[in-house]
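Sample 1 of the test manifest.
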Amino acid sequence: MDMESQTVMPSASNVGPVTTKMTARDVSVYYGPKQALKSVSIDVSQENVTAFIGPSGCGKSTFLRCLNRMNDTVASARVEGEIKLDGTDIYKGGMDVVQLRARVGMVFQKPNPFPKSIYDNVAYGPSIHGLARNKAEMDEIVEGSLRRAGLWDEAKDRLGESGTAMSGGQQQRLCIARAIAVDPEVILMDEPCSALDPIATAKIEELIDELRGRYAIVIVTHNMQQAARVSQKTAFFHLGTMVEYGDTKTIFTNPFEPRTKDYITGRYG
Amino acid sequence: MSLSMIALLVIALGVVAFFVARARANVFDAGALATRSAGDRPHSRPVYHGWFVGLSAVLPALLLLTAWSFVQPRLLDATIVASLPVADQPKSQIDKDAIFGEVKGLASGELADAFNPASRAAVPAYQANQARLQTEALIACVLISIGGAAWAYTRLAPQFRARNRVERIVMGILIFASLIAVLTTFGIVFSLLFESLRFFNMVSPFEFLFGMQWSPQTAIRADQAGSSGAFGAVPLFWGTIFIGAIIAMAVAIPLGLMSAIWLTQYAPPKLRTILKPVLEILAGVPTVVYGFFAALTVAPALRDFAFAVGIPGASSESALAAGLVMGVMIIPFVSSMADDSMAAVPQAMRDGSLAMGATSSETIKRVLVPAALPGIVGGVLLAVSRAIGETMIVVMAAGLAANMTANPFASVTTVTTQIVTLLTGDQEFDSSKTLSAFALGLVLFIVTLILNIIALRVVKKYREAYE
C-alpha cells in the first residue's frame, strides 16, 4: 500500500508552524520468520502529539519501539527500512544507540520505577549521562523534572522514599519525570495509562498536554477517546500495516478508510 | 510367619478387596445405564469404590503392624530376661546386649554356638514366644484387614461418595509422608542434642566454645602423656570460617556472580544453552573427586609456589588449597542463585534503564544487581552454609593440625574434618573425645540452620517486592 499518498501533512489548525522531527520510510519488522510490521511510513512532528491506535497485535507498539531502537533488546527482531531523527538514519552503522535513547526517551505501559528512592529514580539518567557537575545541579534537575511532570508537590517531602512505594499514577508520572530528566527531544509513550485508574489517567493526559511543544510526543493507546483527547495527529494500525494517518479530528470524524471507520465506531477491535 | 510376610498378606487382601468392591460398583453403573436416568447415576466411578475398600483393608492393618514391630522386640527381650535363672541375670547393659545378641543369633540360626551358656538355655523360650507373638500379629492383622474391608464394603451404595473419601485418605497419606521427613529431622536434632549434653557434662560449654587449645587425644592408659585432652574449639571454628567463608567465598562470589551476569546478560542464547549446563555439572562432581584434585594437584603446587617465593610456614596441606577448590565447587551455587534472582528482576526494569540511554553494563551495575541483591545475598549465605558443612575436600586437603593462623599456606583444620577423625575407627562412645564430635556437629548444625533461615527470609522478602 502506498502510504505517501494518504499521509496528510499536518495542518496548522491548532498548533502553529510544524517541523518534522522523525521520519519513517517503509519500515518492516520481523520477529524471526514472522513479519510484525509491513512497510510503515510516517512523519512525526515536533509540535504535535502523535497517537498510534489499533487493535491488540496490530504492530503499533512494535513500531513505537523501533523509534528508539528498543527492539534491539529482542534477539530475534529484525528491522528493515529507514527511520531518521533530524535527518540522520538511526539504523545506520555507527549510530550510538545509547545516545539515541537519551534523545528519544520512553515511558512504558506498566509504571517501572527502579527500586530506588524517588530522587535517585529521577537522577538516574542525568548521572549516567553526566549532566550534573555537582549535587546542587542535580538537585535542580530533579526538582525541575518533577515539577514538569506535575509531581513536585506530592514528592518534595518524600524524595528519599522508594519510588515503588508510590501509587500507580504517581509512579507513572515519576517515570515521565525520569524520562524528561535527561532532556530528550522525543518522548515515546507505550500505553502509559493502561494500568491506571481514570483519575490518574486524567492527570497523565493533562501532563501530556502540558509537555506538548517542548517535546515531540508519540503515544500508543488502546483507548480511542484518549487518542482523541490528547493527540493532534493519529495513525491507525491494523494487522501490521498502517491503514491511515492524518489529523486526529479527521480520523475521528471523517476517516478515509472504511477499516478505520469500522474500528473507530466499534465494529471490531 | 514373619512380620514382613504379614504385611505382604495384608496388601494381598487389599488387592482382593479392591477388585471385589470395584466389581460391585460396576453393578451400580450397569444399573444406572439400564435406567438411563441422570438422577440414578452413581456418585463415584467404580474404581474409587475399589480404592476405598482396598485402602480400608490395608491401612489400619499396616498401622497396627508397624506398632507391633516396635513392641514385639521389647516383649521378646523381656521374655529372655525372665527365662534366665537368677544366677545368670545380666549385670550391666553391655552384658544384656551380649546375651540378647547371642540368643537372637542362635534362634535365627545365624550363630552356630554361643559363648555364654545362659544364652543357649534361653533360646527355646525365645523361639516359642516369638512364634506365639507372630501368630497373634497374623490373626490380629488379618481380622482388622477383613473387618475394615467388610465395614467399607457395607457402605458401598450408588450414592456413596467414595471419590471424596479416597481424596481424604490420599491427603492423609501425603501428610503422613511429610511428617516422617519432619520427624526424622527432629530425631536427628535430638540425638545430637543428647550426645552433646553428655559431652558438656564432662567439658564445660564455655571451655568448648571459647577455648583456644584443641587436642582431643585422651589417654587410654594412665601413664600416657597428654592424657588430659583439651577441647577448646576456637581453632576449629576459625579454620572452618577461614576455608569455607573467607577463601572459598573469595573465589566463588566474584567468579559465580560474573559468570551469572555474562551468561544471563551477554552470552548469545545458543552459547548459553551449552555453557549453563556445563557450569552446573561442576555441582554434580562428587566432592571426593574435588578432594583428590585439592590434595594431589593444587596443594603440592601451592606448597612449591610458597617455597619458591619464600613464604614461611607453608605446608603440603594448606587452607588455601582446600579453600580454592571448595570455592570452585561452590561457583555453580552462587551463579545459579544469582542467575535466578537477576532473571526475576522484571524485564521492565531493564527496559526502563536501557530506554534512558544506559549501556548494558550500567544497567547491570546500577539497576539489575541492586534489585537482585537480596537474592544474591541469600544465595551467598546458602553457599556459605554449604561450604562450612563440606567435608570431603577439607578432610583430604586441609590437614588435622588445629592452628590459629591467618597464613593461607599453613595447615588448618575444620569442624567437619575433626568430626570425621573423631568418629572413624573403633571408638568408645563414653569418652569425651568421641562425644566432642557430637558437640561439634551440634554447633555446625546450629550455624548452618541460622544461615539458612536468614538466607530464606532474605530471598522471600525480596520475592514479595515484585509480586
